[in-house]
Amino acid sequence: MIRLGELFKRLAVGRALRSEQLRETLLSKRVALPIFASDPLSSVAYATQEILLVLSVAGLVYLHLASWVAVTVVCLLVVVVLSYRQVVFAYPGGGGSYEVASANLGRSAGLVVAASLLVDYVMTVAVSVASGVDNIVSAFPALHEYRVGLAVGFVALLAGVNLRGVRESGRVFAVPTYLFVGAMLVMCGTGLLRWLAGDAPVAESASAGIRPEPGYEHLTGLALVLLVLRAFSSGCTALTGVEAISNGVQAFRPPKSRNAAATLAVMGLIAVTMFAGVTALALVARVHITADACRLAGAGPGCEAVPQRTVIAQLAAAVFGGHHSPGFYFVQAATALVLVLAANTAFNGFPLLASILARHRFLPEQLHNRGDRLAFSNGILALAAVAAGLLWAFHASVTDLIHLYILGVFTAFTLSQAGMVRHWNRKLRGEADPARRRRHRIARSINAFGAVCTGLVLVIVLVTKFTEGAYLAVAAAVLLTVLMRAIRRHYDAVGSELAVTDATAQTVVPSRISAVVLVARLQTPTLRALGYARAIHPSHLTAVTVAVDREESRALVERWDALGIDVPLTVLDSPYREVARPLVEYVRSLPRHGARDVVSVFIPEYVVGRWWEIPLHNRTALWLRSRLMFVPGVMVISVPWRLSSTRVRPPRPTPRAPGAVRRGEPDPRIHHRPADR
Amino acid sequence: MIRLGELFKRLAVGRALRSEQLRETLLSKRVALPIFASDPLSSVAYATQEILLVLSVAGLVYLHLASWVAVTVVCLLVVVVLSYRQVVFAYPGGGGSYEVASANLGRSAGLVVAASLLVDYVMTVAVSVASGVDNIVSAFPALHEYRVGLAVGFVALLAGVNLRGVRESGRVFAVPTYLFVGAMLVMCGTGLLRWLAGDAPVAESASAGIRPEPGYEHLTGLALVLLVLRAFSSGCTALTGVEAISNGVQAFRPPKSRNAAATLAVMGLIAVTMFAGVTALALVARVHITADACRLAGAGPGCEAVPQRTVIAQLAAAVFGGHHSPGFYFVQAATALVLVLAANTAFNGFPLLASILARHRFLPEQLHNRGDRLAFSNGILALAAVAAGLLWAFHASVTDLIHLYILGVFTAFTLSQAGMVRHWNRKLRGEADPARRRRHRIARSINAFGAVCTGLVLVIVLVTKFTEGAYLAVAAAVLLTVLMRAIRRHYDAVGSELAVTDATAQTVVPSRISAVVLVARLQTPTLRALGYARAIHPSHLTAVTVAVDREESRALVERWDALGIDVPLTVLDSPYREVARPLVEYVRSLPRHGARDVVSVFIPEYVVGRWWEIPLHNRTALWLRSRLMFVPGVMVISVPWRLSSTRVRPPRPTPRAPGAVRRGEPDPRIHHRPADR
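Output (structure tokens, whole complex):
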């Protein structure tokens, strides 16, 4: 059974990898850009679309506001990029928002950031994959009904790839990201040039009118402001993932900070250009898009309109000549690919952050273990499960999922920028050099401005999105924060309970051991257990049976006597046909001559070799063990009897790298303390 | 956690019961009849309906054939009742079909019968509950869409009731069964009298025409015969449960056989009367029924007809004056109730048969244990799960489920009657008295005729129902038979492997014990394990740690040295970050001076008190244990360390009946062997 499971695992994730194979390969700027930037750059694929979607509820008239919203988003993007450049220089060791907030604002702020980021990684996977699927469906509309299946399939694929452990993934990332950037720039350039030449591209939805939703017919004052703010909140998805570079400064070639900052700047420039270009082109080509395709068609109730193509797809078709042109397919393929790669960055980030949190004992320690392919397997599986669940629950709808997004991003932005302000304050206090002081002051004001801006956006997002689903993200983050605190409290309590001090370091040898051998039937395993019990030289030895069935117990006692076994057999009455309770009470009642006495309970256990044999043998032994563990001063001894079916299996071969230490030999590379008793 | 589970269990099934409370109360004929007869009598509720349904595919013209089919079923019922009277006299100890077939035809036949009966019990539950729900829905059509939920709910209710253990259930059974019989007789009597008086009751569906199904328009020859045979197969459901009395002869008051035979006769009489009466009344009242309500309505494609009422409901409405008359509600209530009670008989029969099979080691031994309410809990749960699954899979449709039924019944009938023929042959061989020989010969011919008739029906059922679902029942029975043989083979092999003979009875004491203490961290539980290991006086003692993380291992070794712990610490290299494999290989590699040497592996284990703490502590210990159990000559010793959260719980009070033996005292009622070492 174990071998079968092993086989499946090897087929799925590949051979086990040795710990030494975990080596950092330093990245050049050219390779680092696509690795870190696929997430922020890919958000161009949905940011514009979500702005237009929100504005469309008020009808066609208000679509032109999209340009102002886009300009604001671009400004915000510049501010955030500038802010993170400060982080990159201040924390060349790789200052993730969690570390920056923890170090400067304390544990609570750090935990809030960590929880927000964990939620956010999940949303990155969900939104990116959903948007990727949308772009595939735009190219192949027949796939529409398999959307959820496709999305969940992509998440499973990403989990599988990451469980295998992605080494050298930079090269894999570089091509699609650069292709995507290239495709976007060419598309925007061509489209806008054609517009200047008076031959503006026309989107397929250009001729369709959009009726305002009921209640949004004649917007004025506050309602209009709220609508624009909601569009702005949605557009802020363009900023997700900007902080990725600041986490990975260590991965750059030296001068690390300088290179990282330069990459950040280039990324910001590309992101701004692409976002502005796509938005402009969408307005020029008159892309009319709405969440409700019937409203677009101007149809009445009962309408069953064909779902719309994505903004990118409409633009590509308009610029490159229709839905069957090579250019269209190329853009869609590059877009879908880069979105899936963006989801993949979360598959790197989430398990890493979870493992850091586990090392700080805020999460279960299993998340800190690298699997045998050197990946943080448990974190990857957790992320994939939650993201797939969300995609399934929200029918892989980008518009629905996006309300849960960004909140986490901006919480992390705001708190880490605020932390940076503190950081510079501290620096300023210990700094005398006026030139440095001036640089610190400038950095501080940049970060302060960033904190204020992102904080403002955070409030806007909260207000405009809360009832539309953001409350779920808030709840998840709050829950995670509380949970992480509780876990840390538990580990701390256990740690101080179990700590070894110099005073308690010497082992205490129990004074007396009594041995109790559990007898269910008079069979060879029982006799072996009796023999083992003798061998530990107990001060008192007795066999015990629980009389679940009177007849059987009587027969057992008779055979026991007939065979002349020279260990006394005690029969425990069990009127309620339980086994555990009478046994636990018997063990508790055994006379002790001091606190240091120990009772050793011997349980003969069958070991079966085939999985279907498991239900054929009473699982009482396991249950008894877990109950006996609660009795103070007890050790539970399993005496295995391997049924013959377990004996035929040959010993399993062990994968060994050359030079590995064999078996029990002390490892020469690690200290080995010689026996000196 | 354990206490919470315990609390839920007690709330659901009640207090634990002492073994002595299992006492047989002997039954009078008046009480025995409803207990054993609710299954065969209740089948009246669907047998007639299924005959009419099958015939309806050929259109209205062929419905009159139902009377001939019914007459044949009645004759068969008489034959089967007569046959089982012989069984009752021949096996006064309670000759279930399984025992009769095993004793006379050998183990294979017995197993086939047992498998058929197990499948059949499942089908009894499914069909009876589905029909009961149909009759409820007939009274309250609004419940139609909750049919499956209702059915599964009833199964859960029955399982719950039976897990509580039904004592004195005779009284509970008597009232609804007699009410049902009374209601049926009054309904048939009134209806037929009105018919004689020229005022025949008219069913609600009387005026509807039924169009023949395509291909059945002008039936002749073989096709007609097949149709009638299919109707007959469906009608044979009236015979299910007839054998119940022969299983329960021991429950009757003396003279047991005489009383049982009399009850059987009365039951047969009532069943024949009711079945004949209902069928006659259905023909008189012109109940037109079909599986496809649209066909009844004569409507074209796209029809969405309201589902039809059951035959019983239509008759009750016709006789007692409409769908809102008290008589109608009374008949429906009695019918639904008796059908649920019929399902309950399977909840008695299945676990009992399973426990007998488990005692004979054909099924896992868990099925032989009585739960703490004295019921065979595992059997009850298994039956409920499978029956609920079937109801869900077949949408609680009687018509679909019924194809899987009867096959098992008639397999059991045929084989047990054939077994009876052998039984009488054997009796005749040893009998000289001519009067007795004559009686045996008569009995033999009755059973032989019964075997031939039921065998013939078995073939008919197989041929006419196989493709409609009966193949599933055949497959399940074959699978069960194969499985039971395999289980027995396994238990036999294990039994002979573990048997203790006089020669091997003396315990062999291992010559040397080496102790290995597993160290993950240097904490108090580790020190306790070291102390316990010392106390067993091993010939060799070493501490072992697996270097999953190089840094941590190095730190551990340094602390170990700093604290001056006087046990050598061996570090095992683990390039693939596994714990189990290096440890298992180390233990295997330890030098042994003889086959009788033993390695004892000490594993310090945390015991947590709250369920949510479980995932917070590495479950490695459990995994290690199960891997080490496969190493020969090993005993695995768990040294529990109860985390403080487990210490606050007070000791659990024990329910005790007066006079019970306390704790470790030897039970005076059972032999206790004094210590004589």
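Chain B touches chain A through 124 residues (CB under 8 Å).
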